[in-house]
Design a protein that fits this description.
The complex is a heterodimer. Chain A is α+β, with helices and mostly antiparallel strands. Chain A is built from four helices and six strands. In chain A, the strands form three sheets. In chain A, strands 1-6 form a two-stranded antiparallel sheet. In chain A, strands 2-5 form a two-stranded antiparallel sheet. In chain A, a hairpin with a 2-residue loop joins β3 and β4. Chain A starts with a helix and ends in a 20-residue tail after the last strand. Helices cover 12% and strands 40% of the residues of chain B. Chain B has helices spanning 2-38, 53-56, and strands spanning 65-72, 78-84, 87-92, 95-99, 105-110, 117-121, 124-128, 132-136, 142-147, 155-161, 164-169, 174-179, 184-188, 209-211, 217-221, 226-230, 236-241, 258-261, 267-271, 276-280, 286-291, 304-307, 313-317, 322-328. In chain B, β7 and β8 (132-136) form a beta hairpin. The chains are: A alpha+beta, B mainly beta. Chain A binds chain B through residues 49-52, 54-55, 73-76, 78-80, 85-86, 98, 100, 110-112, 124, 126-128, 131-132, 134-139, 160-161, 163, and chain B through 38, 40, 43, 46-50, 52, 55, 197-198, 201, 203-204, 223, 243-246, 251-254, 273-274, 300.
Chain lengths: 191, 331
């Protein structure tokens, strides 16, 4: 085989391989975007709240934020996402609270129920509250990549190091992957 | 001149090859370093890691039960377990399975819809659906059924004694009282006094009740981490409660998720989240640990419980889809 025919043969095989890959990609990829646009998102069923989302994102404050699926919440006084484990007093004192930035706040509803909300400006996506809620509560607190903050990098630096492979590209039409009910609140576009 | 040209050409070629080799080595080194850096055990310490391993540790001397059988079931969703007439009764997506205590399959009875809870009393099998109760005989024949009123009714537990059947309704936070024939006799919501703002606090779909061997009705008040003893008319007679992430109490927002009784009247309890099964004395004091969290690695759901004639504990592990049998260690 001379050089020319070798290049010809190789070119054919590469083209064939590329076509096979594309065909497989189209037929077997489970989630296909109608618009052809994809964004990075966290699968809450896979996330193990390792805390890396807070430190690995290219944004100075991570684009990952805690979101609250209120439909799943028990509105409990003793909230595993709000209080440190083994907290003696269920008060709002910083020494009792799990969130390192004070982003998770609670409001009295009626005895003995409290509503928990997240101040996204303060949240750094560390997932401590999410781990507490998943371990001791209903799992209503979940980590999500907020698309008004995410730069949608070609390679997500968090996904690269995620120990549970919880981050993947999803169709832009279903940009949030939440257990239970979550209504995307109106967010200020930052870019 | 010609020789010089060849020499120069050879030299240039050598330099290019050397450069390419060095470049390849540099790239390989960078890739290897990057891969090594990415390895889980080589990453820098994570300042935001919430380590709950310490809470899951249990003093081994407290674990007085051992797992004697792990009976794997098929992959379909499992809903609940009960023990009666010397057999294990297990409900799944739309069927009722009958097994021997050793795990031998004795029968499979189709159900018309997806069940939520089950109890066996004498020779009747009561199966609770979302808002309906159906009664079966041991051969799987339906002998009765009735609808349970209420907009958001969600039956999560049944218990029968004498001619009464009690049903826990998590959706409406109430306990319903029926005759075993299906006549509605009343209900109670767990308010301890008339002016109380709340009775049963049910933050999630786990709301259990059971009869103790002495005939006393016990209802879990999960939001208060309490076990409450009621008369059959629904009057609170007594209670004990213990909320704690420690082994002596019930952890999380709500618990215990499931209860059962040992022949001596002790409570067997299971908790979700940090999954564990324990035995509490009738007074509420922790007696022993049946299964520590380490036995439910990556688990979330509290196993449903049933107790056999010899005091063996059947735990329906929803995460692993298996029946795990625990027996007391011989001293």
């Amino acid at each position: 085989m001379n050089r020319k025919s070798f290049i010809n043969q190789s070119g054919r095989w590469i083209m064939l391989g590329a076509m096979a890959y594309l065909t497989g990609h189209i037929f077997f990829r489970r989630k296909v975007s109608a618009s052809g646009k994809y964004v990075w998102q966290i699968d809450p069923y896979k996330c193990n709240q390792c805390g890396r989302c807070a430190t690995q994102c290219v944004r100075a404050v991570s684009a990952v934020k805690c979101v609250h699926a209120f439909q799943l919440c028990g509105y409990c006084d003793l909230c595993g996402g709000y209080f440190k484990p083994n907290t003696l007093n269920l008060t709002t004192g910083a020494e009792n609270r799990l969130c390192p930035t004070g982003a998770l706040t609670r409001k009295f509803v009626e005895e003995p129920f409290f509503e928990y909300t997240i101040d996204e400006d303060l949240c750094n996506g560390c997932g401590k509250c999410v781990k507490g809620c998943s371990s001791f509560g209903n799992g209503s607190l979940q980590l999500q990549i907020r698309h008004n903050l995410c730069q949608n990098c070609n390679e997500c630096s968090i996904a690269r190091l995620c120990p549970s492979d919880a981050i993947s590209r999803v169709p832009v039409e279903s940009a949030y992957q939440i257990k239970g009910d979550f209504k995307n609140p109106a967010v200020k576009e930052t870019r | 001149m010609h020789k010089d040209g060849i020499r120069t050409h050879m030299m240039t070629r050598r330099i290019i090859i050397s450069f390419l080799i060095l470049l390849s080595l540099a790239i390989i080194t960078l890739v290897v370093l990057d891969i090594r850096k990415s390895r889980t055990d080589r990453r820098p310490a994570n300042p935001y890691d919430l380590n709950l391993d310490e809470l899951a540790e249990v003093d081994p001397s407290l674990v007085r039960y051992q797992e004697t059988l792990d009976l794997k079931l098929d992959d379909s969703e499992k809903k609940g377990i009960a023990y009666g007439m010397g057999k294990i009764w297990l409900i799944g997506e739309n069927y009722l399975l009958v097994l021997s205590p050793e795990g031998v399959m004795l029968g499979k009875i189709p159900l018309p819809e997806s069940p939520y809870c089950i109890t066996v009393y004498h020779s009747d099998i009561y199966v609770g659906f979302k808002n309906k109760i159906r009664v079966y005989d041991p051969d799987g024949r339906e002998t009765g059924n009735w609808q349970v009123a209420g907009d958001s009714t969600l039956l999560t537990s049944l218990a029968a004694r004498d001619s009464l059947l009690f049903a826990a309704d998590a959706g409406n936070r109430r306990v319903l009282r029926f005759s075993t024939g299906g006549s509605y006799l009343g209900e109670f919501d767990g308010r301890r006094e008339a002016g109380d703002l709340h009775g049963f606090i049910v933050p999630s779909g786990w709301f259990d009740l059971a009869f103790a061997p002495d005939g006393e009705l016990w209802v879990v008040n999960p939001g208060l981490h309490a076990l409450e003893n009621y008369t059959t008319e629904g009057k609170l007679r007594g209670y004990w409660e213990k909320g704690s992430t420690g082994i002596e109490g019930f952890s999380g927002c709500c618990g215990p998720a499931h209860i059962a009784f040992l022949p001596d009247g002790s409570f067997v309890t299971s908790e979700k989240g940090m999954v564990r099964i324990k035995v509490h004395r009738a007074s509420g004091e922790l007696e022993s640990v049946v299964a520590p969290p380490a036995l439910f690695e990556n688990g979330y759901y509290a196993p449903d419980l049933a107790v056999g004639d010899r005091g063996e504990i059947f735990a329906l592990d929803f995460d692993r889809k298996s029946i795990r049998i625990f027996e007391r260690k011989t001293e």
